[in-house]
Amino acid sequence: MTEFILKLMGDAGYFGIFLLMLVENVFPPIPSEVIMGLAGMGVSRGSFALWPVLLVGTAGTLAGNYFWYEVGRRLGYQGLKPWVERWGRWLTVEWQDVEKIIRFFHDRGGWVVFVFRFLPTFRTMVSLPAGMARMPHWRFSLATFGGSLIWNGALLWAGIVLDSRFSELERYIGPAAIATFAAILVFYLYRVATWRPRG
């Protein structure tokens, strides 16, 4: 994984960083922690400049999140109704729950998107309900870009400080990602087993 990221960054430069961050947010095969951390190593070694890396990485994050925002916006939350009515048992939600989420996004969606930028997994998927709630483009963009700028800056700083030792963290990031996914799966199975419709 590290070799692939370094090769793409070496071959494509800043565009490679943008592309990696975009793909990571559409379909996350590579954690952004690794991408921006290795980019920080490049800054430390003089291969990249700090601000261009931070800005293109954050622009890639915004572009990737816009994919899910547009999916939600085009689908619309009303488009979920047949799915919820048919598969609510497995989704562990009822239509009233969907309406509550949409109302919540209308009232506090900007802050939710901003805060979720610091949470693994949810920082990408929060774009879907934001689009379904038809959050204004400017609010979604501002919240996503602002939160991502802070998070990516922290990852860059870690890469700069740790430099060559950053690659050692990859052995921990992989198991941590697997453990997080397993915890989410267990929680979902628990929800399915214990969920009862209000009606």
TrEMBL record:
Pfam families, per the entry: VTT_dom (PF09335)
Keywords in alphabetical order: Cell membrane, Membrane, Transmembrane, Transmembrane helix
Highest taxon, organism lineage: Bacteria
Keyword Membrane attributed: yes
Transmembrane segments: 12-30, 50-69, 140-160, 172-190
Sequence ranges assigned to domain VTT in this UniProt record: 30-159
Membrane-topology annotation of the record: Multi-pass membrane protein
Compartments, record wording: Cell membrane
CC per GO annotation: plasma membrane
The protein, known as: DedA family protein
